[in-house]
Every structure is written in structure tokens, then in C-alpha cells.
Design a protein that fits this description.
The chain has 697 residues and is α+β, with helices and mostly antiparallel strands. Helices cover 15% and strands 32% of the residues. The strands form 9 sheets. The chain has an 8-stranded mixed sheet, with helices on both faces. The radius of gyration is 25 Å and the shape is globular.
């Protein structure tokens, strides 16, 4: 339901390791070397190989531009957990050095502004605190000693202060209300947003603090006594906070709303806080939608960020905005650029801004010339560039494809050549044959051209006939790009000898605002026709068995599966729906971010004139179901509560339709624990093989 669900997944994974140790205690550390080596004899991706891969994150460039700092997390599925360690390597490429060796995660590493220290989050017996070490990992020392868990932090550029965020208790707990009932187990709520994504509101709010450095004393709560969050839940982190170069001011993002107003609005603003005067000023009051992820220019005179113009629309175009501190004016620098702009980095001289934008189902690096306002595309090809940092004559980026997880690359600005710098998973990927992803343009029922990825099995044989899967994307407005997923992994699907059909149907970014926005209020309309156009077109190929087609998807993709199950006209032989909306009326009454529901299905079902979206709710067409279906849901999914999956499964069971319910009590909208994820993958293919491969000719 969100474009940035990957951020929440990463956060969940990072905090999942809770053994209480201090840095550089080596017992229990998980590395690639001390785990069971997967069986590579089949030469294709499977779930054990997938969970054997190292997962790169948090790439940081040293202040002098010479050294890269990053995290790699390895999982041991038998222990059902993972371990992230920090590495450094030359910015020009070379041999990496592991600088930490602990059984817990080192999280959110950053360089100190002078480059002489590295800081990161680490959990000890007093909570999650900021630690510092030398660039080689030695002399690790706990920096903060606050009562609670710090969730993100930043140095002030002049190194006189440090900012950090942590939850503070504002609303009274049950024990505080009724101290004579210490064993009472209950929650009391008087307003909305009593739960969000995967957690129940506990009366705490994430607040931003500024403290002296290096003592970390004299901490000031910038939101003291206020029931607001910074960073913003559930995805926000340090990218929502930025210091001005002189260290006397910082900006931060905050949605200063509570309860029902918070649930119904996306109006998040950027605030400027002055350390000397203690004054706070709203810089983006003029805009009623999202204002997010500010980045300050090197000279401190300008700020770039992205905004969305419409309150309540979470997937609108991300406009590139620049605020001038000297003139106190903000302008949209992307008015003629019909694409999103995110992940900003200023050039060293402040004359250019580099950013990421989705174009035709890939994410590419772009450059804005601030003076002329000209925008230039710097990268191309079937890749997803996912982050960018400026480093003189080159850019440091991360990149993925359907076949390759994230690695670090350098883009030369003079000739736009791209050089791979990190090779974390090369030795693993060299042992398997990758599936091939092909671009295909399919004509839709309204005469448009739709980009469809067709992923062919490894060792594809065009003289054979293969079963095919229609992949329905979630979001609903999240591109089917060159992402590498650890659950919906196209490589592994194809390795099971399935052809994957992954359309960029109506409602996805990268093809202009009209294409992106058309899905809102039209869930059962053109986007569903686009799905069928894609599978019908690919099914004509001689190597596709049109009698063995399946349909799979999660979130809005799960909704799509339920809807298509009632409208597919015998196309598919089986369906798999993960955490999908089944009954829009019950979903509206149990979801939490009401701004999404109010925009995308046009409001409440009890309006005098019920929004037409409710007429296309999948549950109204369940009488047409006639095809086996696997339903999957997590017990802690509060975006789409698990009762939606129960309703779908019960409806299939009561009609005698072969069906199965896979339920994960402790998982949320995602599946993050290694053994749960591997179980998910095994059941996924067990179901598909049962209905698409048994008795195959």
C-alpha cells in the first residue's frame, strides 16, 4: 500500500536481532563462512540460496570522498536470524575490510563530519544507543546513554551537537492510570490511529532531540509535550532531518496532527529549528500534501526536497522543490518533468542536484542544473539505481536487477560509464544460471502501449511449453521495475520453470501522471483490463501453455487476485493472494491510514451516496469463483487485517473450492523471519506445482 515498503522491511529486519552483547564480542556472529553452504548442484535460484545472499545497505561516503562505508547482513535460516556488520572499501573500488565483528546488528552507520570517527546504532542492555569507533573499527565506545531506544541520529556539521530521535511516553499507561491493577492487560483508546502497520499505539511518540557533542548532555526535546512524531511512522528515518552547515539550525519533517486528523491527512511539513533562539518555523505551510526528505546545499543557502500537492494522495507525483533561505521562497523545479524525483544529492559546488526517477519500469539517475533548470538523464539500461551520492567527477550509486541484489557502482560524469565497485554476491551468483528478463510492449484495450516484463526460466527452451504466472503488483502505485525481492523473487519463480508475466498496468509510476493516477477510484476498471491484456498477449506464444496459467499477488496485488478470481472467464487454473483486500466495506472499517482509503476508494461506505468503488469489491463476485486459491496473511498486518484473508478462505471453503489458508501469527504486511519466509516460498510453489504441473503433458 506504500511506495516505500522496503524501508519498513529493512527496519524490521535490523531490529530483529536482540542478543545483548557489547561491540567486538565475536561469539555467535553470523557470517557467510560460518553458515551451512547451500546446494548449488541444480545451478538455479532456490530459497536457501536466496537467504544465503548478503544484503547491502546504508552506503556512506567519507567526507574526503576516499572511502565507502556500508553494511552487509547475512542470515542463518537455521538460527532464524541475521547479523549485519560494517565494512569499508576505497571509493575507487578495491578489497573491502570488515570493521565490526559482533553478534548484533550495527545499524545506520555514518561518518563523523571530520572523517575521524564512524558512528552507528547498537543495542546493549540499556537499549539501542549511538556508538562510535575509529574508521578501522577499533576503540568502539558508547556515545549516548539515554533511557530508551534511539531510532536514528545525525551529527551537526560543526560537531558541537548531535540530533537523535527516540520514543517518549506522553499518554498514560494502564499501570499509570490504575497502579493497583498491575496485571491488567488491556488498551484504552479515545481516538483513531490506535494501531499502525504492525504495532498498537502505546502512548509513546518519536521525538527529535538535540544534545551537546560529544557529551550528549543538555538534550532538548524539539517536540516536548506534543503528540507528534519525528521521524514520521512507519517508514521515516534520518532522511527526514538535515542540519544547516553552520550547525546552528536544522530542519525536520513532521505531520503535526493527531488521532482522526492524522489518519485522514498526508499533510507533512518541513520545520526549521534555530538552536540559539529555540524558535521553530514551518517552511512548507503553503503545501497541503507531503513535504519530505530535505537536503541542504553545501553553502547552506538552499534546500531541496520532494512534495506532493494533494492532501490525502500518497502516490502523487513527487515534485522536486527548492527553497531559498535568503529570499524565503520555494519553487517547483520539475513543472515540465512528468516523473517523480527522490533521493537527492547536491554537487560539491551546489550548482547541480542529482536524483532518482522512475522511467518506463526502471529507476535512473538524473541531473538538475539549478541555474538553467534543465534536467538530464545520466543512466539508462534495464537497471534500478536506488541511491546516489556525489563524489567529485563521479557518482556513487547502488543498483539492482531482477537477477542481481544491490551492489555499489560508480557513474563517471564525463562519459556516463558505469563501473561496479562491490562484489558481495558475485561468487554465489556465478554458480547459478540467471533467468532472463525481456521487455514487451502490449497494446491495451484503450489503445495504449503497456510495458510488460516477461521473465523466462533459466536454460529456457523455446520448443517446450511452460506454465505462466501473471504477477499482480502491490502498492497500488509501486513500479514493476528492476527490483530484487527476497519474497516475490522472479529469479526463483522462473527457476521453478514458470514464465513470469509482470505488467506495468495502469496506476504505476514511470509512464506519466495520467497513467499513474488513473487507478484511483477505478480498482476494478482499466487496471484489471490491463492485467488480462498482458497475460492474453503472452499466452499466444508457442512456448506458453495457455491451459496452465496462474495468477499471484500481494496487497493491491492480492485484491487484484481476488477480483480476477471472479472475472477471469476460465483463463487461470489457480490463484495465490497474499494480504489482499477482499471486502472493501470491512477493510475500510479496520484499516488505519484512512487518507489512503478516502482517496483511492473515495471514502466511507455509509455515505448517503455510496462511492462506486464499493460496487467492485471482490467479495461481491465470490459467487463466480470456480478456481483453486491459496490465501496468505499475517496476524500483525494492520494495513489489511488478516480477517480479509479469512473471509476469502471461508468463502472458497463454503463453496467447495479447493483452497488453503497460510497464516503467520507474528508477521505483518511482510514476511521477514528467515524460516517463515522460506516456508512461504515452499508453500507458494507446492500450491502452484499441485495445480499447474501435476498431470502435465
Amino acid at each position: 500500500m506504500k511506495k516505500n515498503i522496503l524501508l519498513l522491511t529493512i527496519a524490521i529486519m535490523l531490529f530483529s536481532s536482540c542478543t545483548k552483547k557489547t561491540p567486538n564480542e565475536t561469539s555467535g556472529i553470523i557470517t557467510r563462512e560460518n553458515r551451512e553452504t547451500p546446494d548449488f548442484s541444480k545451478g538455479v535460484m532456490d530459497e536457501k540460496i536466496l537467504w544465503y545472499l548478503g544484503r547491502l545497505s546504508d552506503v556512506q561516503l567519507s567526507p574526503d570522498g576516499k572511502t565507502l562505508l556500508y553494511s552487509v547482513k547475512y542470515y542463518d535460516y537455521k538460527l532464524n536470524t541475521g547479523n549485519a556488520e560494517l565494512y569499508t572499501m576505497p571509493a575507487e573500488g578495491g578489497e573491502p575490510t570488515r570493521i565490526t565483528t559482533t553478534p548484533n546488528d550495527e545499524m545506520q552507520p555514518v561518518w563523523r563530519p571530520d572523517g575521524k570517527k564512524i558512528a552507528y546504532l547498537y543495542s546493549d542492555d540499556k537499549g539501542t544507543q549511538v556508538w562510535e569507533c575509529d574508521p578501522d573499527g577499533s576503540h568502539a565506545k558508547q556515545l549516548t546513554h539515554v533511557d530508551g531506544d534511539i531510532n536514528c541520529f545525525q551529527y551537526a556539521p560543526d560537531m558541537k551537537h548531535i540530533s537523535y530521535a527516540m520514543n517518549v511516553q506522553i499518554d498514560p499507561t494502564i499501570e499509570q492510570r490504575y497502579p493497583d491493577l498491575p496485571k491488567a492487560d488491556a488498551m484504552i483508546y479515545d481516538d483513531l490511529m490506535y494501531r499502525h502497520w504492525n504495532y498498537w499505539a502505546d502512548g509513546t511518540y518519536s521525538h527529535l532531540f538535540v544534545a551537546d557533542y560529544p557529551s550528549c548532555d543538555n538534550a532538548t526535546d524539539l517536540l516536548e509535550g506534543q503528540k507528534f512524531h519525528c521521524p514520521n511512522p512507519p517508514f521515516g528515518g534520518a532522511e527526514e532531518i538535515a542540519w544547516l552547515p553552520d550547525g546552528n539550525q536544522l530542519v525536520y519533517c513532521c505531520k503535526k496532527l493527531t488521532g482522526k486528523a492524522f489518519a485522514e491527512s498526508t499533510n507533512t511539513d518541513i520545520y526549521l529549528y534555530d538552536l540559539k533562539t529555540k524558535n521553530t518555523r514551518n517552511l512548507t505551510e503553503f503545501n497541503k500534501g507531503y513535504d519530505m526528505d530535505p537536503v541542504i546545499s553545501p553553502d547552506g543557502k538552499k534546500m531541496v526536497w520532494w512534495n506532493m500537492k494533494t492532501d490525502g494522495f500518497e502516490s502523487e507525483k513527487h515534485s522536486l522543490m527548492i527553497y531559498d533561505f535568503e529570499t524565503d521562497k520555494a519553487e517547483d523545479y520539475s513543472t515540465g518533468f512528468d516523473q517523480d524525483a527522490t533521493d537527492f544529492a547536491w554537487s560539491e559546488n551546489g550548482k547541480s542536484i542529482y536524483f532518482i526517477s522512475c522511467k518506463e519500469a526502471t529507476h535512473q539517475v538524473y541531473k538538475l542544473d539549478v541555474e538553467s533548470r534543465a534536467i538530464e538523464q545520466l543512466t539508462d539500461g534495464d537497471y534500478d539505481y536506488n541511491s546516489v551520492m556525489a563524489n567529485g567527477k563521479q557518482l556513487i550509486v547502488t543498483r539492482t536487477t531482477h537477477a542481481e541484489p544491490s551492489e555499489i557502482y560508480a557513474v563517471q560524469l564525463n562519459d556516463k560509464t558505469v563501473k561496479q565497485l562491490s562484489f558481495i554476491n558475485k561468487d554465489v551468483l556465478d554458480k547459478i544460471t540467471p533467468a532472463k528478463s525481456e521487455k514487451r510492449w502490449v497494446k491495451t484495450t484503450d489503445g495504449k502501449q503497456m510495458l510488460v516484463w516477461v521473465i523466462l526460466p533459466p536454460n529456457f527452451d523455446s520448443t517446450k511449453k511452460y506454465p505462466a504466472l501473471l504477477y499482480c503488483q502491490g502498492g497500488p502505485q509501486s513500479a514493476v521495475s528492476q527490483f530484487f525481492s527476497y519474497r516475490w523473487n522472479f529469479q526463483m519463480m522462473a527457476a521453478h520453470d514458470y514464465i513470469i508475466v509482470a505488467p506495468n498496468r495502469r496506476g504505476l509510476p514511470g509512464f506519466g501522471s495520467e497513467w499513474n493516477d488513473q487507478i484511483s477510484g477505478d480498482y476494478g476498471g482499466q487496471c484489471m483490463k490491463d492485467y488480462l491484456s498482458a497475460i492474453d498477449d503472452v499466452a499466444k506464444e508457442p512456448y506458453v501453455d495457455e491451459n496452465r496459467l496462474g495468477c499471484v499477488g500481494a496487497s493491491f496485488g492480492g485484491f487484484s487476485v481476488y477480483w480476477l478470481a471472479g472475472h477471469h472467464e476460465k483463463r487461470f487454473k489457480t490463484f495465490i493472494a497474499h494480504c489482499g483486500m477482499f471486502n472493501l466495506e470491512s477493510w475500510y472499517g479496520t484499516t488505519e491510514e484512512l487518507f489512503f482509503a478516502n482517496h483511492d476508494i473515495e471514502g466511507a461506505y455509509w455515505k448517503k451516496t455510496m462511492p462506486s468503488s464499493y460496487n467492485i469489491s471482490p467479495h461481491k463476485f465470490v459467487g463466480n469463483w470456480d478456481t483453486p486459491i491459496l490465501v496468505i496473511h499475517g496476524g500483525k498486518d494492520f494495513r489489511i487485517p488478516y480477517t480479509e484473508g479469512m473471509q476469502a478462505f471461508d468463502a472458497a471453503q463454503m463453496q467447495g473450492i479447493p483452497s488453503r489458508f497460510l497464516y503467520f501469527p507474528e508477521e505483518c504486511h511482510f514476511v521477514t523471519k528467515p524460516q517463515n519466509a522460506m516456508l512461504w516460498q515452499r508453500e507458494f510453489f507446492r500450491w502452484l506445482d499441485q495445480w499447474l504441473k501435476e498431470n502435465e503433458q
